[in-house]
Amino acid sequence: MIPYVRQFDFTYGRRDQVSPLIQRVIADNPGPFTFTGTGTYIVGRDMPGARVAVIDPGPEDEAHLHALLRAVKGRTVSHILVTHTHRDHAPLSRALAEAVGGAPILAARPPAQATHASTAMDEEDDDAFAPDVILMGGEMIEGDGWTIEALATPGHASNHMAFVLRDENALFSGDHVMGWSTTVVAPPDGDMTAYMDSLDRVLARGFSTIWPTHGPAITQVAPFLKAYRDHRLEREAQICARLAAGDETIADMVPALYAAVDQRLWPAASLSVLSHLIKLVKEGRVSADPEPAMTARYRLID
After folding, report:
1. Residue 126 designated active-site
2. What is the pTM (predicted TM-score) of this model?
3. Catalytic residue among 9, 16, 28, 88
């Protein structure tokens, strides 16, 4: 079982000092995919004139913009970092950049195709998002007393970029790892093979703390990540078991696989099952007729 972390103290719009170098302000956009809302992080010293970075400004929300401006008042925003282009992470970036005097926006290149195979999600891309600086992974971003490393973590989205606060051995994980839930991996832009590879890279780094964009910090990092990874492998085995039992379609599988899950999340769960099946087809363990898709028929390969 994944040792989920769901309880924490917060108030919308309040700036909370959550570590020596990190403050967090949570946007009032709760939902089935955002949990309590988007947590925007401010990295840097809380002293006049200090240069700080803002991570995941969040959705277009005037109240959240004003809360962020209050939170950074007296300091200089030197960088705005975005983990990926979903609408609960990226859209406020440009308004924030303009309000603080033109801080550059840094992110991976936006995806060339639609993020999801279904419109039944509220995590669609911000089509207007255009970073000032394209990150590839490995870049070092520095301010007053802090250094952030860009860490490419594709899977949830092809352009997902996590950020390492090297001074605290901490990872801002965006949606790659969340303490309150598993991560949606939704084709065509989401890729389960890439996701599992990224998860292994994060596990290998030995971080002390993970700060997801949604929900509280993960402090028991190694056991949490191992359970997170084991859950994906278990889900893969469950899908194979459903195929062995005679299920042929994703619609057949989801009610059995996600019986204990809020049915509002079943469209997202269906996309995760599709992502697993695409991986299994690539590995030669499952066949698809005609090819991997929501409506295809699948069978195990003996």
Report:
1. no
2. 0.94
3. 88
